[in-house]
Specification:
Keywords: Signal. With about 210 residues, the chain is mostly beta strands. The protein contains one helix and twelve strands, in the order αββββββββββββ.
Length: about 210
């Protein structure tokens, strides 16, 4: 977590130094996430065979909130680092048993954007992610393979005065999974922790 915060302030400092007196805006943001993480794999370790069950996640709604800094590189182009807390939720149905999977993480998107027709803009960039916690119903998961992962976001938005809203798509690039032994069944459980979601945000320039 400390590394993610330090990286955010390094990015903010870089944006500030790049402005040479141009406009810099600080703001608040919040919104909803709709999507899932990857598939779940359950391997039966109690039987003589190697029975493997693989199920894709069902989409569920999560949320996020945080801050952003937008630095104008010109009248049309800008750089926008964000720091936000995100909770993603997915669910799996395995043998008529429904399992909910929740992930809590810190996200640091570093976005480059271009303004179109004054109020509209499009953007994209990498998203650095630090996993804080992950929970699967009735199963005690171990630590994820990588606490720090990288994804990519791109989207479009609108800016009217101090108010802004955008919709974006995020996909995790770095392979990442949590693993555990289900004490109820004795099965080996592996869950893909990469996000695959749409994100709707509203923000306010301060």
């Amino acid at each position: 977590m400390k590394k993610a915060i330090i990286l955010f302030f390094i990015t903010v400092s870089s944006v500030t130094m790049a402005q040479n007196g141009s406009g810099i805006t600080f703001g608040l943001k919040a919104g909803l996430n709709y999507g899932d993480n990857g598939e779940i794999e359950i391997r039966d370790l109690t039987g003589a065979g190697s029975n493997i069950i693989t199920e894709d996640a069902n989409d569920r709604i999560g949320y996020h909130f945080g801050v952003f800094l937008r630095g104008d590189l010109s009248d049309k182009f800008y750089l926008k680092p964000e720091l936000q807390y995100t909770k993603n939720s997915s669910s799996y149905t395995v043998d008529n048993r429904k399992l909910g999977y929740d992930i809590q993480k810190l996200d640091l998107p570093i976005l480059a954007g271009v303004r179109v027709l004054k109020v509209f803009h499009v953007f994209g960039g990498p998203s650095l992610q630090y996993m804080v916690e992950n929970d699967l119903d009735d199963v005690r998961l171990g630590d994820v393979k990588n606490e720090f992962t990288i994804g990519f976001q791109f989207g479009t938005g609108i800016q009217i005065g101090p108010f802004n809203a955008d919709i974006r798509y995020e996909r995790g690039f770095t392979d990442n999974q949590a693993q555990a032994i289900d004490t109820n069944t004795g099965s080996d459980v592996r869950v893909d922790s990469r996000p695959n979601q749409f994100i709707l945000s509203i923000g306010l320039d301060l």
